[in-house]
Amino acid sequence: MTLVVRARRVVLPDGERAAAVHTAGGVVTAVTGFDDVPASAVTLADDEVLLPGLVDSHVHVNEPGRTEWEGFATATRAAAAGGITTIVDMPLNSVPATTTVEALRVKREAAAGQVAVDVAFWGGAVPGNAGQLRPMHEAGVVGFKCFLLDSGVPEFPPLDDAGLRAALAELATFDGLLIAHAEDEQVIDAAPEPSGASYAAFLASRPPAAEETAIGRLVAATRDTGARSHVVHLADGDALPLLRAARASGVRVTVETCPHYLTFAAEDVPDGDTAFKCCPPIREAVHREALWEALRVGDVDLVVSDHSPCTPELKRLDVGDFGLAWGGIAGLQVALPAVWTGARARGLPLAQVMGWMSAAPALLAGLPGKGAIAVGRDADLVAFAPDERFTVGRLEHRNPVTPYAGRELTGVVRRTWLRGREADGSPLGRLLDRGGR
Ligand SMILES: [Zn+2]
């Protein structure tokens, strides 16, 4: 099966230009001049740019066990609609949590046959499972997630300092990767309790110092063990100097942020609107701008959704109580337009956005077929209209609660191809192993 797509603007690893992308058997076979095409070539409209498929390395699918929150069919349909051709599923919120080889088998069985895009899996590092890490690595997980404080679900307990170091030491023996939810329990315990509809009170309950303290612990343990670690969903601009210094001194730590931290600001979150509740919280605009600047200069490596939905009941929109509501934001389908809207307003180019949202997450997750339009890579392509505006309406996610509802964004995904086939929501996706295709 062959497909040739050409456009006046194609985002390639070395920048943007007019080109034709030739594919066969689901793989890119050549990138040629715009005019060097067969009669069957698809030509994008003048207002469309051809992008590599996005890779979202931070998605909570929750199936099996909490499929009513989100499942593989709905999550991957939302991904395809949003130009995301690969997701990496988080090990928690499903039951069982992916903390053993057997639980990985159960997860893969639940996903098989119903995924509209490609799916890879994170394992989990929890107290007492250090001996499971190498077998899970060999079974194909891309790395391991841990929490440094209560995760919100009892089946996925956090690592204390000794547990963190034990996990990193074990991972260092096979150059595995540990990704960490970095907030510190003691700092949060010492802060005021969140309660009621006040967003300011919720924000005060999870101060920036909680992120800085936990990141400090992670950096020290990463340095001492020589392992690789990654900070998920950074919200705190004040933690950037600490990370910059660690990286400059050779500590192997990378960092991601999320579309909601780049889009919203605490000053604008309405009291009682728990659709905005996530942990760490959306902070003040000064943090948002620091994160944008860090992306611009390369101090933050990637932007991924942290899509973490639940049922509307658990969001407690009935009472609007930030203390009671589940923390997690649903935004997988609008990740690209949300980030592009912000990047465009700040004069940052689309090619750089693709670095954060396609190339860098593919590298983090060790998926060599993904992350770029280049010969030998998978033919994962997106036709994107970067100047078209739209208002966020019904999304493909299982549950419709999202802080993006009704928001006007710029940039419309018009078509997505997965390995050369139109990603129309039907189950074309594959389950991927680390390093695999
Ligand atoms: Zn998450």
Report what the structure shows.
It is a single chain. The protein is an alpha/beta fold and about 425 residues long. The chain has 2 domains: about 1-45, no CATH class; about 55-370 and about 385-410, Alpha-Beta Barrel (TIM Barrel), CATH 3.20.20.140. It contains 12 helices and 17 strands. The chain has helices spanning about 70-80, 100-110, 130-140, 160-170, 185-190, 200-205, 210-225, 240-250, 260-265, 285-295, 335-345, 350-365; strands spanning about 1-10, 15-25, 25-30, 40-45, 50, 55-60, 85-90, 120, 125, 145, 175-180, 230, 255, 300-305, 380-390, 410-420, 420. The strands form 4 sheets. A 6-stranded parallel beta sheet has the order 9-10-11-12-13-14. The protein starts with a strand and ends in a 15-residue tail after the last strand. The model has no long low-confidence stretch (mean pLDDT about 95). The structure holds zinc ion.
Top CATH class of the largest domain: Alpha Beta
Let me know the number of strands: 17
Structural class: alpha/beta
Radius of gyration over C-alpha positions, nearest whole angstrom: 21 Å
Amount of beta strand: 15-25%
Pfam family, one: Amidohydro_1
Subunit structure: Homotetramer.
Keywords: Hydrolase, Metal-binding, Purine metabolism, Zinc
Pathway: Nitrogen metabolism; (S)-allantoin degradation; allantoate from (S)-allantoin: step 1/1
